[in-house]
TrEMBL record, chains A, B:
<dbReference type="InterPro" id="IPR002220">
    <property type="entry name" value="DapA-like"/>
</dbReference>
<dbReference type="GO" id="GO:0005829">
    <property type="term" value="C:cytosol"/>
</dbReference>
<feature type="binding site">
    <location>
        <position position="44"/>
    </location>
    <ligand>
        <name>pyruvate</name>
    </ligand>
</feature>
<dbReference type="InterPro" id="IPR013785">
    <property type="entry name" value="Aldolase_TIM"/>
</dbReference>
<dbReference type="GO" id="GO:0008840">
    <property type="term" value="F:4-hydroxy-tetrahydrodipicolinate synthase activity"/>
</dbReference>
<keyword id="KW-0456">Lyase</keyword>
<protein>
    <submittedName>
        <fullName>Dihydrodipicolinate synthase family protein</fullName>
    </submittedName>
</protein>
<dbReference type="Pfam" id="PF00701">
    <property type="entry name" value="DHDPS"/>
</dbReference>
<feature type="active site" description="Proton donor/acceptor">
    <location>
        <position position="131"/>
    </location>
</feature>
<comment type="similarity">
    <text>Belongs to the DapA family.</text>
</comment>
<feature type="active site" description="Schiff-base intermediate with substrate">
    <location>
        <position position="159"/>
    </location>
</feature>
Length: 297, 297
């Protein structure tokens, strides 16, 4: 399950609370497109804003609507004790894998992050993906630390943020990381605008926000990458530049994806947990126009 | 309660869990020194690593051991809903004031942070202090936003991180902020190494990590500041340079204060919640040596 397209859906949270029907509608788009895995409660899935009971319930709903597509559940928390409780809940809900970001409050040291993963791996029976996302966790991994953690039994993938924009630099960056990882641990790209460069640089999986709402568009890209069609990968991603531009304009993808889910009628236009707020009406109209013009699905 | 010395105690969490007896011993040092207020569950109080029931219990213990010293309770969480629940708990425990940091996961926009404070102020009856600490929250306040939030009824103080090291620059910085605040809203310095400069620049209160464990040393400084003895403030702080050096060396104060609490026999040397880990034995010995040489109390 740590190759191909891993779709990361939004978790719609409207003023009335978690929107279960909207979430199921989003999941159905992903299953109908045949994603290789589903990553629920990632950053775009707003795990950080939800209670433990909400996260447990959402993992269960994902599992019961995923068909035979494996489900990875993010168990991030600043507290190791809470990570273990969330891991218990996710496993009880049937999670096929867990995703762990080293969420920081106090700045973490390398030995503390290693200790966090070591404690989790001693506690769980399903495979785990390392979630490297300094923009939200504030922790910067070294390749050496990735390698040290990846040698813990059960680690199966590393989710990295963007790669350098030059194809040669991107390939060098991915190869340097891979040289520290044991066989069988894949590298996955996130940061959707970097996906084509990352896949062409040797990443085996796209942990994709775009794929959480537009799985057909994302799967075309990972399918082309799997066939080695590097130019086609770039073309398909370049076509989505208006979407990547919206992500840049709004300081990340989550508010854009929330606006898109609302524009598609999948949930309420106001579907982000507070303190997050929806884009302005004008910006939402721009998002809707981009979806229409690209015929995104 | 938003002037003078506000002491921010460590919350000791040993491998056996929250160390209530150790916490009470730490509180007793603060009350015996006559701090002007106690700020529990701040960053050094590890609020971010504790569950809601733990935070409620700790607020109650602080209140019942604070004598007539007012207690401020930090209610930080990335989720607005959780902030409101924590505020309910803190008020039920008898908190005299609340402290709110805009803890970020997704990067927050100014209107989102304003909305967070507006929602809290509509919900609570006790005064609130704005907690500006970009090092842990990842949110950078503008003076304009401070002023806008400070005009909400019930806001009584702004806790700022360090000030520029030059006294003139520090005074200009504090005056610029004060010009945006309504009368009756104080400015408090944190970042202990900056305290003397901040107090001499016009800050009315020191939100003090040092004061959480060495309240006599901290109170000497705020007492001198209250008497307008600016040179004495600088002298007293300069004497504590070996402590500030340890804070710098270890990337912040929390691991040093944990080592100090252990060295003083107040709690276990391993008293930080995971994933945080104690300093090495050698570094703990260095901390103990500094406490002894400065006769800190």
């Amino acid at each position: 399950m740590f190759t191909g397209l891993s779709a990361f859906p939004l978790t719609p949270v409207t003023p009335a609370g978690f929107d279960e029907r909207g979430f199921i509608r989003i999941l159905e788009r992903i299953t109908s497109a045949g994603a290789d895995s589903i990553g629920v409660l990632g950053s775009t899935g707003s795990y950080a804003y939800l209670t433990r009971p909400q996260r447990s319930r959402i993992a269960g709903i994902a599992k019961s609507h995923a068909g035979n597509i494996p489900v990875m559940v993010c168990v991030g928390s600043v507290s190791t004790d809470e990570v273990l409780r969330l891991a218990d809940d996710a496993q009880a809900a049937g999670a096929d894998a867990l995703l762990l970001p080293p969420v920081s409050y106090q700045t973490l040291r390398d030995d503390e992050v290693f200790g966090l993963f070591e404690t989790l791996m001693q506690h769980v029976s399903v495979p785990v993906c390392i979630y490297d996302n300094p923009g939200t966790t504030r922790f910067e991994f070294s390749d050496e630390l990735h390698g040290r953690i990846a040698r813990l039994p059960g680690i199966r993938s590393v989710k990295i943020p963007g790669v350098p924009s030059s194809p040669d630099d991107a390939r060098a960056r991915v190869q340097r990381l891979k040289s520290t990882l044991p066989d069988g641990v894949t590298v996955g790209i996130s940061g959707d605008a970097s996906a084509a460069t990352g896949l062409n640089a040797g990443c085996e999986v796209w942990y994709s926000v775009c794929g959480g709402l537009f799985p057909h568009a994302a799967k075309e890209i990972t399918d082309a990458a799997a066939r080695g069609e590097r130019e086609r990968v770039v073309q398909l991603s370049d076509r989505l530049q208006p979407l990547w531009s919206l992500f840049r304009k709004h300081g990340g993808s989550i508010r854009v994806m929330a606006a898109a889910a609302g524009a598609l009628g999948l949930t309420d236009p106001d579907c982000l947990p507070r303190p997050l707020r929806p884009l302005s009406a004008g910006d939402i109209a721009d998002v809707a126009a981009v979806i229409r013009s690209l015929a995104l699905r």
